[in-house]
Design a protein that fits this description.
Elements lengths: L46 H21 L17 H17 L4 H43 L7
Helix pairs in contact: 2-3
The structure holds zinc ion (ZN).
Zinc ion binds next to loops.
Length: about 160
């Protein structure tokens, strides 16, 4: 980062860290030993060595990436899950097929079925609340009817 005249900003360098100034104007975050001024990565005499180490690092990263368990079912293949009992049954059947086909590993299958359990509880609760609202409305209707047409007692 330079000013209008193309000069690097004057920064107070921390002598415990590499003197290299990054593009954002901050000092490199690598600590340096006593008597050293730059880190391995920014030592002009070790450029080739650092480049080779960066390449090895990228290679290791690519290998680890390739060795990771493959991601779950791609989004476009994942089923829509309707928020009702029928939707949950369909999703569970899909999950069982995906496990058998090897599209889901044990961990992913566990997460799927825990998610379906949660959805099931929510769907049940939603249904019970709807029934409760209906029952309260029916009770209020009965109470109103009883007020309008009170039954005579003692007959
Ligand atoms: Zn550095």
């Amino acid at each position: 980062m330079t000013d209008d005249n193309g000069n690097l900003p004057v920064v107070a360098l921390d002598p415990e860290y590499c003197r290299f100034i990054k593009e954002d104007g901050r000092q490199c975050g690598q600590r340096v030993g006593a008597g050293e001024t730059v880190c391995f990565w920014h030592d002009p005499e070790r450029t080739e060595e650092a480049q080779a180490a960066r390449e090895r690092g990228r290679e290791v990263y690519r290998e680890r990436l390739a060795a990771r368990p493959r991601p779950c079912v791609p989004g476009e293949k994942a089923p829509e899950i309707a928020p009702d009992l029928e939707g949950l049954v369909q999703a569970a059947a899909w999950g069982v097929r995906a496990i058998i086909a090897g599209d889901l590993d044990a961990k992913q299958a566990g997460a799927l079925f825990r998610g379906l359990d949660t959805l099931h509880r929510l769907v049940e609760r939603q249904s019970l609340e709807a029934e409760l609202i209906e029952a309260r409305a029916a009770l209020n209707d009965l109470k109103r009817a009883a007020e309008i047409h009170p039954r005579r007692r003692g007959r």
